[in-house]
Amino acid sequence: MHVGYHIMAWRRRQKLTQARLAEDANLSRPFLSRLEKGKADPALSSLRRLALALGVSVGQLIDELPEERILRRDEMDRLARGAWRPGTQEALAQPETRVLARMIRDRRRALGIYTPKRQVASTPAYASAINASRWLRASLGEKQWDALLRRIDKLASTARDEP
Fold first, then answer.
1. Rounded CA separation 8/18 (Å)
2. How many whole angstroms separate alpha carbon 72 and alpha carbon 5?
3. CA angle at 45 for the pair 41 and 51, rounded to the nearest 5°
4. Which fold has domain 3-63?
């Protein structure tokens, strides 16, 4: 994991927008975005300002991730079902399921399992899917993210076995 992922995880845990954190840390929002994506390296002074704005030490910001969000079993199932069947009413009500559904569709497309009905430009959509999945991963934490992906894979395997 890079420092930017840690910054995003702490920011997401505290429910701050990039604009708000950038303002509190006296940084530009585009610079904070590049930091979170790992496309820029922060100076020590920037890390100090970010840590102060987030209310953590620089050491915590660099070395530790915030406490993971724990999903109950029903929440995990709801997200997994929504990702596998994104057109349902239940899935449409959850922004996280759209992120997961796009990621699953891209995985299936890469494996040759899914062919879109109409061709769309892939570069901007792919970039937004990567950013959205990075956002969700930072929000949930590593253990919950892995558990959610395993649950989706389990749903996918049972769906293939059905007639």
1. 9
2. 24
3. 90
4. 434 Repressor (Amino-terminal Domain) (1.10.260)
